[in-house]
C-alpha cells in the first residue's frame, strides 16, 4: 500500500469514527418514579412535578425514615441507595438515568395531632409547632392564678412523655407562660404554654370538613344561660339564621355544634341517594357569621372562614402528564388509552376559554369498523395485543367533603356510526360523558375492551358497592348529548350523590375516579367515530 493510500485510509477511518460519535441519536425516555415502599408512611406521586411526598405516620421518626424500595421506569438507574434510612427533614433528590437524566424530589410531611386544653377554654388552642408555642384562651373573668390543664398532647401518641406531667398541671399559675419538656425518639424539646384572657365571647373549636361539622363555644353567665342563651349561624350573605344543635353548658361555657342536613332522593336506578343541604353544615372555604343570643337579643357577632378544600393533582392539565403519552401503565394520577397504534385518543391541546396554557383533547377514531373512544381517566392503562385494560382509580387524601366536581369543557358530539356491542343504534344521537366517583376500594377496578365485548364494566349509579373491591361512597355523572354551542369552553358542574353519609374522614384510604369519554358506550364500540371532547380545570365544588 502506498504512503498516500495509507494516509487517505486513516483519514477516512477517523472521519467515520467522528460521524458515528456525533450523529447516533439517543431515544428520549421520560423516567419516572412509580412507587416508594418503606416503613411508617404512605406515598403520593406527582409525575408532572417529579415529586414524591411521603406522608409519615405520627409515630415515625422523621430523622430516621426507612425506605426499602424505589420503583422506577424500566432500565433506569437511581443515584441513591435503597434500602436505607434517611433524615427526611430535608428533601432527598434522586437522579434517574438512562439516556438522559431526570431529577426527582422525595419529600416528607408529617401531621401530628397536637392539643392543649384548659378548664373554661374558649374555642380551640393555637398551636405553633415551628416555635413550639401552645396558647389557650379563657374569659376575661377567669382567674389565671389557678388554671387546670385538662389535655396536653404535643407529640406522637403513646410514645411521648411530658415534664411536668398533665397531673402536675392540675392547678397552675398562668399569669406568666409555663414551659414543658416534650420527649420522644430519645430527644427532648421545650414548649411554651400560654393561657390568655379574651374579650371575645365566641370561638370555633374543633372542625371536621369531611363530616361538615364544627363545635362552637361561648362565654355565658349562669343568669344568661337561665335567660335562654343560644348560638346561631349562617353562611355570610344568607338571610336566615340556623340554630346550632345539642347545646351543652358547663362552668360558664356554652358549647353547640354546627351539623349538616341531607336531602334524600331516588336515582334512576331506584337507589336512595343523598345530597347535603348547602345552607346547613360547615363547608370548605365558606365564611360564616355566628351570633350569641340571650333571649332574642344579639349580644355578640363572630365571623369565621373555614379552611380551603382539596386540589385535584394535575386537574389543570398542565405539564407533561402521563395521559398525553403512550405509556400509562404506571400513571400516578391521569392516564389514557393512548398506545402505539392509537396515539391521539388523549393529547395536550389549546382551546378558547381554557385555564392556563393547555387542556386535554379527547379524539375518537375508527379502524376497520372498530371504534376507539377518546378518553381520559384517573388510573392506569396497559395494552396486550388488541386488548386494552384500564385500572380505574387513584388514592386521594380527602380533607373535605365535596358537593360537586367542576370542570371546563367543549364537546363535538355526532350521530352513532359504529355499533358493535352497545345499546345505541346507528343514526341515534351519541352521548359523551364525564363521571366522578369517591370509592373505598382495596384495589383498582380493571375494565378490559378490544375487538370483543368488554369485561369488568360497572355503573356507579346502579350499585352501592363492587364485589371484591369495596363501597362506592358517592358518584356524579354528566352526559353530553349535543355539541357545545359557541367556540369557547363552558363551565360544567357535576353534583355528587352520596350513598354513605356517616363514614369518618378517609385519611388517604379512599380512591378518586374521574373518567371522560367521547362516547359513553365506547367500551362496547358503540358511538360516533368523529366525536371530540376538550376538558380542563377539574376542581371540587364545596
Secondary structure elements and their pairing?
Elements (H helix, E strand, L loop, with lengths): L2 H21 L9 E6 L2 E6 L4 E6 L8 E8 L4 E2 L5 E3 L5 E6 L3 E10 L4 E4 L7 E3 L4 E7 L9 E5 L7 E3 L14 E7 L2 E12 L3 E7 L4 E7 L2 H5 L2 E7 L6 E2 L1 E6 L2 E6 L3 E5 L5 E5 L10 E8 L2 E9 L28 E2 L10 E4 L9 E5 L1 E3 L2 E3 L2 E10 L2 E6 L1 E2 L8 E9 L5 E2 L12 E10 L3 E5 L15 E2 L3 E11 L9 E6 L1 E2 L12 E7 L8 E2 L4 E10 L1
Parallel strand pairs: 3-8, 11-15
Antiparallel strand pairs: 1-4, 2-3, 4-6, 5-7, 7-8, 9-12, 10-11, 13-14, 14-15, 16-17, 17-21, 18-19, 18-24, 20-21, 22-23, 24-25, 26-31, 27-28, 28-44, 29-30, 31-32, 31-42, 32-37, 33-42, 34-40, 34-44, 35-43, 36-39, 36-42, 38-39, 39-41
Précis, in short:
With 542 residues, this protein is mostly beta strands. It is built from two helices and 44 strands. A hairpin with a 2-residue loop joins strand 14 and strand 15 (187-198).
Number of DSSP strands?
A: 44
Percentage of residues in strands: over 45%
Q: State the domain count.
A: 4
The fold-level CATH name of the largest domain is: Jelly Rolls
Report the mean per-residue pLDDT as an integer. 92
